[in-house]
Amino acid sequence: MLSIYQLKPKFQSLLRPYAKSLFDANITANQVTLTACLGSILVALLVGCLAQFQWIFILIPIWMFIRMALNAIDGMLAREFNQKSNLGAYLNEICDVVSDSVLLLVFAQIDSVSSYLIILVVILSFLTEFVGVLGVMIGASRRYDGPMGKSDRAFIFGVISFAIATYLLPLSWINLLLWVISLLLIYTIVNRIKKGLQEVTK
Questions:
Q1: pTM (2 d.p.)
Q2: I need a surface site. Which of 25, 41, 143, 196 has the fewest CB within 10 A?
Q3: 3-state SS, residue 113
Q4: What angle do CA 92, 24, 11 make, to 5 degrees?
Q5: Residue-range domain boundaries for the chain
Q6: Nearest-CA neighbor of 7 among 70, 59, 54, 72?
Q7: Which residues make Cβ contacts (< 8 Å) with residue 147, sequence separation at least 6?
């Protein structure tokens, strides 16, 4: 199933010089992970407090891109610069879920958007990552299958936020988009379970 995650190797190759610079500056993978999480919380708080001004949503696509870069860099620091650790594995999964949740909950501040739908998307997003991690428990790899993985969600909500900020997206359409995203998340959960089971039965 097509996913933006498949573009990660090319993205990482562009970021490799920056990872090397951070390593030379004694910046660790765990510090990058925590920075991405704290940045997500701060951006969510800022956008949430000023959500009545649609233009403020332009911060979300900008931050989503930065966060994706930081996530790619912390992975490279861990794998390519011998900074892999058990603590890092915990931080990576926990910080991703926290970052996703706070950035998605911001949309509940828009009057015409259903808070229940936002909560549904947050729960389903958590489940996609939880199911991905469960693959390791049955002897499979950590599953990143799409079509609505972490990178895909970052892209989709970045586009939605840009459209909100530039008044290109009628706010009344967001609930419909959330239903579509929810269905794709459910499909992703099923797909990750299926792929994980297939992996261990080969």
A1: 0.91
A2: 25
A3: coil
A4: 50
A5: 4-201
A6: 72
A7: 1, 2, 3, 184, 187, 188, 191
CA 33 to chain centre: 12
**Nearest to residue 40, comparing CAs of 15, 67, 4?**
67
Tokens 């499909």 label which residue?
A: 187
pLDDT, average across residues 85-101:
95
Highest mean pLDDT: which range of 16-20, 75-79, 103-107, 143-147: 103-107
> Residue 28, SS3?
coil
CA distance 59 to 162: 8
Structure letter (DSSP) for residue 169 = S
Give the span between the Cα atoms of 200 and 192, in whole angstroms.
13
- Cα–Cα distance, 117 to 177 (Å, whole number): 10
| CATH number of the 4-201 domain | 1.20.120.1760
3-40: pLDDT as tens digits: 565 666 777 778 888 889 999 999 999 999 999 999 99
Q: How far is CA 119 from CA 37, 47, 101, 105, in A?
A: 20, 18, 9, 7
Token readout for 48 is 């949430």
Amino acid, res. 153: R
Say how far apart CA 67 and CA 194 lie, in whole Å: 29
Taking phi over 0 as left and psi of -120 to 50 as alpha, with beta for the rest, 26 belongs to left
Alpha carbon distance 123, 113 (integer Å): 17
CA 85 to CA 77: how far, in whole Å? 11
Cα–Cα distance measured from residue 188 to residue 171, given in angstroms and rounded to the nearest whole number: 26
